[in-house]
Amino acid sequence: MAEAVFDPAAQPAAEPTPIPLRELLPWVVFGGLLLLLALYFVGAEEGATSLVPGMYVHEFVHDGRHLLGFPCH
Question: Which residues, including other chains, have CB under 8 Å from residue 72's CB and lie 6 or more apart?
Answer without folding.
Answer: 46, 58, 62, 65, 66
